[in-house]
Amino acid sequence: MVSQKVIIKNPTGLHLRPAGVLCKEAMQFKSLITFTFRDNTANAKSVLSVLGACVKCGDEVEFVCDGEDEEEALKALVEAIENGLGE
Predict the structure, then answer these.
(1) Rounded Cα–Cα distance for residues 25 and 37 (Å)
(2) Taking all residues of the chain, what is their mean pLDDT, rounded to a whole number?
(3) pLDDT the model gives residue 18
(4) Cα angle at 57 between 22 and 20, to 5 degrees?
(5) Which of 52, 56, 75 is closest to 3 using CA atoms?
(6) What predicted TM-score, i.e. pTM, was given to this entire model?
(7) Measured between alpha carbons, how far is 58 from 60 in angstroms, rounded to an integer?
(8) How far is CA 26 from CA 21, 22, 32, in A?
(9) Residues sharing a CB contact under 8 Å with residue 59, sequence separation 6 or more, in sequence order
(10) Contact indicator for 26, 33 with CB cutoff of 8 Å
(11) Residues designated as active site
């Protein structure tokens, strides 16, 4: 299991479009991928779960990846967030 904290940089936070991009990225991996935000845990492979977390710009989330491709999954997700999730 690997984890890393990351700051959300999107000006509008994780609304529908970036949440979709995040989920699409997460679904490429076999590992279980979740993130914690304000004592809540969300499934990064579920758009509804990501949207339900209500993550805004500047918020810090901690991604946790657990499985056979956990290292690659974490690296790809952090990179996607740092690149603005398509925005």
Answers:
(1) 19
(2) 92
(3) 93
(4) 20
(5) 75
(6) 0.88
(7) 7
(8) 9, 6, 9
(9) 7, 8, 13, 37
(10) yes
(11) 15
Structure token digits, residue 17? 């479009």
**What confidence category does residue 12 fall into, taking pLDDT thresholds of 50, 70 and 90?**
confident
Contact 85, 24 (CB under 8 A): no
Apex CA 9: angle with CA 6 and CA 12, to 5°? Answer: 130
Q: Report the alpha-carbon distance of residue 24 to residue 1 in Å, rounded.
A: 21
Decide if 4 contacts 28 (C-beta within 8 A).
no
Distance between CA atoms of residues 53 and 28, nearest Å = 21
Token duo for residue 13: 């936070």
Q: What is the pLDDT of residues 61-76, one digit of tens each?
A: 999 999 999 999 999 9
- Provide the 8-state DSSP code for 59: -
Q: Name the band, by pLDDT with cuts 50, 70 and 90, for residue 84.
A: confident
Task: Return the structure tokens found at 69.
Answer: 């491709």
